[in-house]
């Protein structure tokens, strides 16, 4: 199974990058860099939730099984971008981001801004527009792989995160998020985004947040 980074390197991915850059007046290289960090992170966050609880898995599976996320959005990118992305799509993307990232959304966007060189406001706007496209891609993969159970969903999402081309650069998650090489990205995401604080005494921090995604 090809991975999220492979998607971004494909003709479809390049069209997505170009469209998102054009919508916000950003450099395509910086936009590509932003998405290379953000999309695997969001997918991995969904993966952890699907693997952590039946409720989280069922909720995501139901969302991906709906007609709204059937992948058709990727077949008409001209319609998605031309004339400006529809407000309803941006609102939908914002709701999904809030569901996934919760109260840490602003912190994550600031960190992505620092690393990509794109101002935080534009990062937020790009992510809101990119998230419906990501959900469409995940929904398309769900259908093509006949995923109908929670366990299969977790495996599919994990494969999309880890299944990047071996001939390309190392997986983003392996090379950047799993900085200590322990096979778990949670502590590394915490260090990457939240000044090295892996969690607080109440189980908070981004590690605690990732364990309660999509509920």
Element-by-element helix/strand order: HHHHHHHHHHHH
Main sheet record: none
Write down how many β-strands occur, each being a DSSP E stretch of 2 or more residues: 0
Helical fraction: 55-70%
The class by helix and strand makeup works out as mainly alpha
Query: Based on CA inertia axes, which overall geometry fits?
Result: globular
Please state the CA-atom Rg, rounded to the nearest Å: 16 Å
Overall mean pLDDT stands at 75
Range of strand content:
under 5%
Distance between the termini: 27 Å
* Number of helical elements: 12
Task: Indicate the low-confidence ranges by residue numbers.
Answer: 164-215
Please specify the SSE layout and strand pairing.
Elements: H1 4-9, H2 11-24, H3 28-52, H4 54-65, H5 77-81, H6 87-101, H7 105-116, H8 120-144, H9 150-162, H10 172-177, H11 186-193, H12 205-210
């Amino acid at each position: 199974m090809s991975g999220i980074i492979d998607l971004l390197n494909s003709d479809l991915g390049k069209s997505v990058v170009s469209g998102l850059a054009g919508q916000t007046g950003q450099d395509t290289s910086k936009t590509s860099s932003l998405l290379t960090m953000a999309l695997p992170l969001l997918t991995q966050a969904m993966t952890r939730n699907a693997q952590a609880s039946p409720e989280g898995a069922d909720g995501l599976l139901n969302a991906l099984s709906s007609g709204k996320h059937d992948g058709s959005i990727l077949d008409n990118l001209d319609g998605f971008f031309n004339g400006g992305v529809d407000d309803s799509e941006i609102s939908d993307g914002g709701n999904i981001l809030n569901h996934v990232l919760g109260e840490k959304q602003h912190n994550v966007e600031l960190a992505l801004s620092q690393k990509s060189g794109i101002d935080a406001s534009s990062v937020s706007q790009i992510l809101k527009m990119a998230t419906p496209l990501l959900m469409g891609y995940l929904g398309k993969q769900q259908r093509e792989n006949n995923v109908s159970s929670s366990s299969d969903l977790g495996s599919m999402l994990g494969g999309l995160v880890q299944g990047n081309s071996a001939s390309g650069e190392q997986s983003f998650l392996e090379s950047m998020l799993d900085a200590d090489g322990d096979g778990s990205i949670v502590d590394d995401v915490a260090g990457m985004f939240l000044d090295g604080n892996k969690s607080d005494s109440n189980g908070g921090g981004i590690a605690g947040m990732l364990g309660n995604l999509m509920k």
